[in-house]
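pls design
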């Protein structure tokens, strides 16, 4: 689907519209060297689903305040405020951006689909990808890879002034980081220090055996 309520300074896409409505979206504003920004944490959707189903398991392992914090991720599971803030930033900067709403396919797959849609490569640093500690701890309990699990509540943004956009969010107490760049090839690369992995589309639902 395409979010038609937004101004034309932003192209907002989901995995559905990337696959089905490519012809309806402009890609001419994307070029190598542009920043890749992520707003919100990986794995929020998955963490909430697990916490709601296995709350008693988490309470056996963690303090009540921690589990309450996990359940409290509900308040950051919507991207509506993020999209409004992006519009405000772009209007003030007189720029455009491509925004991908991460869904059940997860963050790695979202980065793959963003690169595929742009027709350009992407290189990101895994250590720079934002993540809430509640997500990390919950994922470890259930042996889930949070980068491949439901990432609803986060956005991937391709823009020119990534550092300025990140500051725009951080000033409001919202998790955000520049995680990489658009490249001039078709490689979809995620680095973890010296380790390199190539991103792929999602083939198996990470939570299939748990929910």
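designed seq:
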């Amino acid at each position: 689907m395409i979010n038609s309520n937004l101004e034309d300074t932003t192209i907002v896409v989901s995995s559905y519209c990337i696959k089905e409505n490519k012809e309806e979206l402009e890609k001419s504003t994307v070029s190598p060297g542009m920043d890749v920004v992520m707003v919100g944490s990986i794995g929020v959707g998955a963490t909430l689903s697990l916490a709601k189903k296995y709350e008693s398991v988490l309470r056996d392992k963690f303090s009540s305040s921690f589990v309450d914090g996990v359940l409290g991720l509900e308040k950051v599971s919507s991207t509506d405020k993020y999209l409004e803030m992006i519009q405000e930033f772009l209007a003030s900067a007189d720029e455009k951006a491509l925004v991908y709403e991460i869904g059940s396919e997860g963050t790695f797959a979202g980065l793959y689909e963003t690169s595929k849609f742009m027709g350009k490569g992407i290189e990101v640093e895994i250590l720079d990808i934002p993540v809430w500690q509640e997500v990390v701890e919950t994922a470890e309990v259930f042996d889930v890879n949070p980068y491949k699990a439901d990432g609803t509540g986060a956005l991937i943004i391709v823009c020119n002034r990534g550092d300025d956009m990140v500051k725009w969010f951080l000033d409001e107490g919202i998790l955000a980081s520049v995680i990489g760049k658009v490249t001039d090839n078709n490689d979809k690369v995620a680095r973890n220090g010296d380790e390199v992995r190539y991103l792929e589309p999602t083939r198996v639902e990470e939570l299939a055996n748990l929910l």
